[in-house]
Write a structure and sequence with these properties.
- Helix content is 60%, strand content 9%.
- The protein is of the alpha+beta class.
- It has a 5-stranded mixed sheet with strand order 1-3-2-4-5.
- The protein folds into 2 domains: 80 residues, no CATH class; 165 residues, Glutaredoxin.
- Helix 1 crosses helix 3, helix 6 runs antiparallel to helix 7 and helix 6 packs across helix 9.
- It is globular, with a radius of gyration of 23 Å.
Length: 256
C-alpha cells in the first residue's frame, strides 16, 4: 500500500511529461547533429524535429507513458523501502538527524521541514505540544527540505541550525527560528547564536560545512518524491506512512 498519499501527482506527471519530451528531443538532436555542431540548433533542424513529432504522435505518447510508469514504479519502490526501513531500522533512517522526545522509541515521527515555510511554523506548534505530551514514547526526527526557489532564507537558516546542532543547541535554535520566522536573516542568526552562548568562531565555521548534511536530507526527499513542506511520516505499532499534523494524536492513541 502506498502511504505517501499526499503527493501532488498531477504536478509530478506534468514534470515527467515535460522531461521525457525534452529527453526525446535531445536524442533526436544528438542523432541529427554532427559532433562539431552539437551545441548549435538551426531552424531547419528544429523543423525536422517538429516533423518527427507530428509524424509519430503515438510513439511519442507511448514513450512518455512508458517513462512515467517506470518513474512511478521507481518512486513507489523507494517509498516502500523507506517505510520498511522506518519499521525495521529506525536508527538507520534517523542517521545524524537531530531528534527530540524519547531517546529510543518504537514510535518515530519524521518531519521534512523548511524554516521559512509558514505552514511549517504552524505545524511546529502542534509538534512541540505533541512531543511534550508523548515525550516518553515518541521520537521526533527533523529532516531539512529547504525550498530554495521560493524561500531565499530557507537554506541559510538550515545551515545556522545545523551549526547550532554541533554545539548541542539545535532544538533551542530551531524553536527560535520558527518563533522569529519573519526576521530570518544574518542579523537574527548571529543574535540567536549569541543568546544561546554558542562559540561564535565555531558557529561561523560550521555554517560553511552544513551544506553536505542538508543536501543528504534533500536527496532523500527527492528520492521519495517529496516536493512540499511540511511532510510527516510516522511509524507506530500498527501504521507506517505519511500523515497530516491533525492525524498524529489519533495515530498515537491507536498505537497505545
Amino acid at each position: 500500500m502506498d502511504h505517501f498519499q499526499y503527493f501532488d501527482m498531477r504536478q509530478l506527471f506534468q514534470y515527467l511529461r515535460t522531461s521525457v519530451i525534452l529527453c526525446l528531443l535531445c536524442l533526436v538532436l544528438g542523432w541529427s547533429l554532427p559532433a562539431q555542431a552539437a551545441t548549435q540548433v538551426d531552424s531547419k533542424l528544429e523543423q525536422q524535429v517538429l516533423q518527427i513529432l507530428r509524424d509519430n504522435p503515438k510513439a511519442i505518447i507511448n514513450a512518455v507513458q512508458g517513462y512515467q510508469l517506470k518513474q512511478q514504479e521507481t518512486l513507489q519502490q523507494a517509498q516502500q523501502a523507506f517505510l520498511q526501513d522506518l519499521k525495521t531500522d529506525p536508527q538507520g533512517v534517523i542517521g545524524d538527524s537531530p531528534t527530540t522526545g524519547a531517546t529510543k522509541s518504537k514510535t518515530v515521527l519524521v518531519e521534512f521541514s523548511d524554516f521559512q515555510c509558514p505552514y511549517c511554523a504552524e505545524v511546529h506548534k502542534t509538534l512541540k505540544s505533541v512531543v511534550e505530551k508523548h515525550k516518553d514514547n515518541l521520537t521526533l526526527v527533523y529532516k531539512n527540505l529547504p525550498l530554495t526557489l521560493s524561500h531565499t532564507e530557507a537554506l541559510p537558516a538550515a545551515q545556522a541550525a545545523w551549526a547550532a546542532k554541533q554545539q548541542g543547541k539545535f532544538w533551542e535554535y530551531h524553536d527560535a527560528l520558527f518563533t522569529n520566522q519573519k526576521q530570518l536573516g544574518e542579523t537574527l542568526y548571529l543574535d540567536l547564536a549569541k543568546k544561546l552562548n554558542l562559540d561564535l568562531p565555531k558557529f561561523e565555521s560550521d555554517r560553511k560545512l552544513a551544506k553536505t548534511a542538508i543536501e543528504k536530507d534533500v536527496q532523500l526527499a527527492d528520492k521519495l518524491g517529496i516536493t512540499g513542506t511540511p511532510f510527516l511520516v510516522i511509524n507506530t505499532e500498527n501504521y507506517t506512512g505519511a500523515v497530516q499534523a491533525s492525524e498524529i494524536e489519533g495515530r498515537l492513541a491507536n498505537a497505545s
